[in-house]
Amino acid sequence: MKFFIDTANLDQIKEAQALGVLDGVTTNPSLMAKEGITGHDNILKHYVKICNIVDGDVSAEVISTDLKGMIKEGEALAELHPQIVVKVPMIKEGIKAIKYFSDNGIRTNCTLVFSAGQALLAAKAGATYVSPFIGRLDDISTDGLGLIAEIRLIYDNYAFETQILAASVRHTMHVLECAKLGADVMTGPLSSIEGLLKHPLTDIGLAKFLEDYKKGN
């Protein structure tokens, strides 16, 4: 399973990279705004900064909702850096754009996916990644993890190469459950990754080892 971090905060990205387990980064306009990154040129420069920190894929989102606009934006984003994956919304024009990008060697991440049918269309169009938003489904009392299982089954049935990128991951248990279900990638906050480190027996055991060492030295 690949670990992506969902943020535009450079310090958090560096911290996740320092752990040695980071495989990529996902961002969106909301995350950029949260870090005070505004203005077209500043946003593009920030994407490049992120690419220079990590070794893996960095999803950069188009803002346009029409086909011509998405193609223009996506091509410009792809030219920024080889690690850029163009993030395209799950809408009719978005599927057309994903097909265009796929035919022209530009990798894509189909975002805002909330059903297995949407994921099937994204895979048919040639998306590199599909991003089901499990946390947002949980927020409306719908089974987000169940969607991961449905997509995994469909993709395995037809040997689709599109990777399932579990998005809107909120906590460590989301990460573990997605791993059990066979999601190819998870993207979430740094806390969801660091939470995997924690277990009270580890803390107790380490404290005991250190205490015993001090007694004999």
Characterize the structure shown.
With 217 residues, the chain is α/β, with parallel strands linked by helices. It has helices at 10-19, 29-34, 40-53, 67-80, 92-103, 116-125, 134-139, 144-158, 172-181, 190-194, 200-215, and strands at 2-6, 24-26, 57-61, 84-89, 108-113, 129-132, 163-166, 185-188. The relative contact order is 0.12. The model has no long low-confidence stretch (mean pLDDT 96).
Give a short summary of the structure.
With 217 residues, this protein is of the alpha/beta class. It is 54% helix and 17% strand. It has 11 helices and 8 strands.
Strand order of the largest sheet: 1-2-3-4-5-6-7-8
Instruction: Output the radius of gyration.
Output: 19 Å
Question: What ranges have pLDDT less than 50 throughout 5 or more consecutive residues?
Answer: none
Counted by DSSP, the helix tally is 11
The string of secondary-structure elements, in order, is EHEHHEHEHEHEHHEHEHH
Helix- and strand-based class?
A: alpha/beta
Total E-strand runs: 8
Oligomer: single chain
Could you estimate the helical fraction of the residues in percent?
Answer: 40-55%
Our measurement of the CA-to-CA distance between the termini, rounded to an integer number of angstroms, reads 42 Å
Give the overall silhouette.
Answer: globular
The fraction of residues in strands falls at 15-25%
Mean pLDDT: 96
Major sheet details: 8 strands, parallel, barrel
